[in-house]
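Collaborator request log, item 7. Partner lab (contact: R.S.) asked for a structural prediction of Acetate kinase to inform their binding assays.
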Amino acid sequence: MSSTRVLVLNSGSSSVKYQLLDMRDSSRLASGLVERIGERTSLVRHTPLAAGGGTRERTGPVAGHDAALKAMAEELAADGLGLDSPELAAIGHRVVHGGKRFTEPTVIDDRVLAEIERLIPVAPLHNPANLTGIRTAMALRPDLPQVAVFDTAFHTTMPESAARYAIDVETADAHRVRRYGFHGTSHAYVSRATAELLGKAPEEVNVIVLHLGNGASASAVRGGRCVDTSMGLTPLEGLVMGTRSGDMDPAVIFHLMRVGGMSADEIDTLLNKKSGLVGLCGDNDMREIRRRIDEGDERAELAFDIYIHRLKKYIGAYYAVLGRVDAVAFTAGVGENAAPVREAAVAGLEGLGLAVDGGRNAVRGGGPRLISPEGARVAVAVVPTDEEMEIAQQTYALVGKNN
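Returned to partner:
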């Protein structure tokens, strides 16, 4: 029997998301989520997509990631999709930080585990949880290939002129300080899907990808390769986000320490969890912000204007980096669903060939689609991201040939 199934795992600090896909036709067989791990009110949600069944939910304590993955395995087994199936070719893991070393999907062994662990200081919120999920999955299926797909990998093609910060080289190298970038699986998938939407090969197309969710990032992709991205050493840099500040004068940190008496941990919390849209207006849901704007709320309007101002700056900067832009692609929760954000982001950029058609922009849902006017010099597109599919494809490309 051919092994064509890939289980995709995304292990967070208190949750595990999963999808089971069949790579013969890229169909989804099941998906689910275990959240609030370690609490008495843990939730297990499972949807058997292939069987057309409804979503099952149950609550109760899930003590740790090992219990979470066992709960996942039980749900899959109930649908005849158990982890012991000979059709399962591999498990693909989302790993947030791969540093400079991991530039492509990698079969996990002790050496790889050690390197992911070594990178914890530059990804303290993500790599530990990713490691826990990997080790638990390896214990459940020690005979099965486990593959790490890194958020940072797509961005390793950046030239040194884009990746390096202008600080002392010896200090930067000693502490691995450089621009790594994140959301790489999304940027890879969307840039390739945008080329397909234009009827061209990725190598022929220059794309600015705008991944706009609660976390947000931009990338400049030339001929299928990333040449710049907005996130840096961590996911804090770049665009205004739901709770993160994005770009800021680093001296603000010293000012808050010296004048505000704040500790490093307090400032870390401020910039990552109490800034961005929520810091500006108290909300990080773009739908709620737009509702408040419609009611005349000035704080919400200012937050929106700051968000758009930063977004336009990156569009303009990456236009200059690329020299020629064939498309600007909006993706992720805000990018795919917030028509006012898309309209405002390109308003006034007609001189660069950018515009949206009001009727096309107002359409909701569906697959990849153009929202620019007919015959526009630069295509503006909405391209739904699919990070799980990207991870599954990369995983199967690596191990499928042996099955």
